[in-house]
Design a protein that fits this description.
By secondary structure, the chain is mainly alpha-helical. The protein has helices at residues 4-23, 28-46, 51-85, 87-98, 102-121, 125-137, 141-150, 153-156, 159-174, 177-185, 190-208, 212-224, 231-234, 237-258, 263-280, 334-353, 355-363, 387-401, 406-420, 423-439, 449-461, 465-480, 483-501, 505-519, 524-533, 540-569, and strands at residues 317-318, 324-325, 366-369, 379-382. The strands form two sheets. Strands 1-2 form a two-stranded antiparallel ribbon.
Length: 574
């Protein structure tokens, strides 16, 4: 049982982050080094961490940060490659051919396309791709980040072709003799049981996520619209509900029949095809087109180093690279402009589902540090398997496809390096702080800061704990920036709590899987990475403050559903 002093000390790093970033609007670059120092001191004083363990945990975090930076750099490189070739301007024209309305563009790009990318790649890739696309269409960069982080939440639980459930739960539960035996006693395999967990997670998402596309649009109109109101979002409520239904039905059916690998992928592909077809047929368009206020009226903190463009059918416009374009200047076909992103999506799927290729990529050019500083911790950098390598490969394919010259290639690389550099400090110290909290109990053989805080929540909640199950999962993802890591950290913990309470372990762990997705909305290094791609590093506090709105809705509603499921609607589920 943790002492009151341990509980207070365990909260300190999070309190510092919250106060500096949300309360004082400090950037992550300024806040995270301070939080790292606080976490180190707390680990040393309250958890008997030796300097060697603190250093090893920090190095472990730094390696993880390098993994993230590789993805971000690749995404930025492809972005600037398409800017240099004019592909972005052609893509702008293509989307505005469906609708110039920003609300419609959010539904298509953020909810549907973002969900597809998340399902294929994970690792925070959707914001790295969708955010710049929105900026290229003329969105304020801050608005692009806020809606890009929000809109694909339903897909995160099944991100990277089911990695959070397969790696985060199936592999962990399979290594536990007691859990494996309990599952076998129900006549199930661990794989089959995790598929049932995925189905319950999908059920939560389908119900709670009914208003997710609407929330994305409402966040945009309320905080970035000229009228500062959700009324314009209500005007596209029929479209948001239609897009949700087009996504949710194949999403849930895939989870039911095929398991946790493809729900997000199939849901997004079917949903996008149906929704685009309906829009092209003239359905669900709002009566009046909605746009942002003139750029001259935008606050300075909305815009970073990358200047937003406008739709190219408005005559003279600001292109994605800040230059001037006109509709007559568009020489690249829409197919050719989209080809790099189509190839990217295809490669992300193939490299995750074709086992021989996956095995090759995960075992080739892998830089591993085993037993870091003699602590037993290990980490690696899988150069070829991470999406960053695929981004760079698609960049290389784009050079001949779009006939880039040497000056354009050089400009793309120089701009990419310039844009990713500000994120380095924030990411390294953010992940190092998390690792200290995760590893804090290892050297002394006691519970870590994370476990102490979670157990305190469980002990305090008692029989209503299922309401907080998703919040615990969100807490893990907030710190680790990963639904998978949250499931690894707290999956077994949630199982044990449900067993002690005598409630459904399947449903409670399903809520954990949903919570891991929720926490990605405010995961610090996800936010930093998303801002870096649009040239807006330093506005992390503003983004997190806004993301607390959808986070609160999703966590509370999921908590209520979990209580209803375990005590009223499905009390007999294992």
């Amino acid at each position: 049982m943790a002492t009151a002093a341990q509980i207070i000390m365990g909260v300190l790093p999070l309190a510092v982050i919250s106060f500096l970033m949300i309360g004082r609007y400090w950037s992550a670059t300024r806040s995270m080094p301070i939080a790292w120092v606080v976490a180190g001191v707390v680990g040393y004083v309250g958890w008997d961490m030796t300097p060697r363990w603190i250093a090893a945990a920090s190095l472990n975090g730094a390696i993880t940060a390098v993994n993230i930076l590789w993805i971000v750099f690749g995404a930025i490189l492809l972005l600037y490659t398409l800017k240099q070739t004019g592909a972005f301007d052609a893509i702008n024209a293509g989307f505005t051919s469906i609708s110039d309305d920003r609300r419609v563009q959010v539904v298509l790009l953020v909810f549907l396309m973002g969900s597809f990318i998340e399902s294929a790649a994970g690792f925070g890739t959707p914001a790295a791709i969708v955010g710049p696309l929105l900026v290229g269409l003329g969105f304020p960069p801050l608005a692009a980040v806020v809606v890009a982080l929000t809109g694909n939440l339903m897909a995160i639980t099944f991100g990277a072709v089911g990695t959070p459930l397969i790696i985060g739960l199936q592999d962990i539960f399979g290594s536990s003799e007691s859990i494996s035996a309990a599952v076998a006693a129900q006549g199930l395999s661990v794989e089959g049981w995790v598929a049932e967990i995925g189905l319950w997670a999908a059920t939560h998402h389908v119900i709670v996520g009914m208003v997710l596309p609407f929330i994305s649009v409402a966040m945009m109109t309320r905080f970035f619209g000229e009228e500062r109101s959700i009324k314009p979002a209500l005007e596209v409520l029929p479209l948001t509900l239609f897009a949700w239904l087009s996504f949710a039905v194949p999403y849930w059916l895939t989870a039911y029949f095929l398991g946790p690998t493809f729900p997000g992928l199939f849901g997004a592909m079917v949903g996008m095809a149906i929704t685009v077809t309906a829009l092209r047929a003239g359905y669900f368009h709002p009566d009046e087109e909605w746009d942002f206020a003139p750029k001259s009226d935008w606050p300075d903190h909305w815009i970073g180093d990358i200047k937003p463009g406008e739709s190219t059918n408005r005559g003279t416009a600001v292109a994605a690279d800040g230059g001037q374009v006109t509709a007559g200047d568009q020489k690249m076909s829409l197919v050719r402009a989209w080809t790099p992103y189509v190839v990217l999506a295809g490669l992300l799927v193939v490299t995750r589902v074709v086992d021989p290729l996956t095995s090759f990529l995960t075992s080739t050019l892998v830089l591993e540090w085993a037993d870091i500083l003699g602590t037993g911790m290990s980490n690696d950098f899988a150069l070829l398997y991470l999406p960053g390598a695929i981004f760079v490969f698609v960049h290389l394919l784009t050079i001949p496809l779009h006939r880039m010259d040497g000056a354009e290639i050089k400009a793309a690389w120089l701009e990419s390096v310039e844009k990713v550099t500000p994120a380095v400090i924030a990411l390294v110290f953010a992940v190092a702080t998390v690792q200290i909290m995760i590893q804090s109990g290892q050297s002394a053989g006691i519970d870590s800061m994370l476990v102490v805080l979670s157990e305190t929540t469980a002990d305090t909640a008692g029989g209503v704990y299922p309401f907080f199950a998703a919040a615990v999962g969100a807490f893990g993802a907030f710190l680790a920036g990963s639904n998978t890591v949250s499931d690894i950290l707290f999956g077994t913990f949630q199982y044990n709590i449900a067993t002690e309470l005598g409630v459904s372990r399947t449903i409670v762990v399903g809520a954990q899987a949903v919570g891991g997705a929720i926490g990605n909305l405010v995961a610090i290094h996800n936010v930093v990475a998303a801002l870096a791609v649009v040239g807006l590093v330093g506005e992390e506090g503003r983004v997190i403050r806004l993301e607390l709105i959808p986070l609160t809705y999703y966590a509370v509603t999921t908590g209520i559903l979990t209580l209803l499921f375990v005590y009223v609607l499905a009390p007999g589920v294992f």
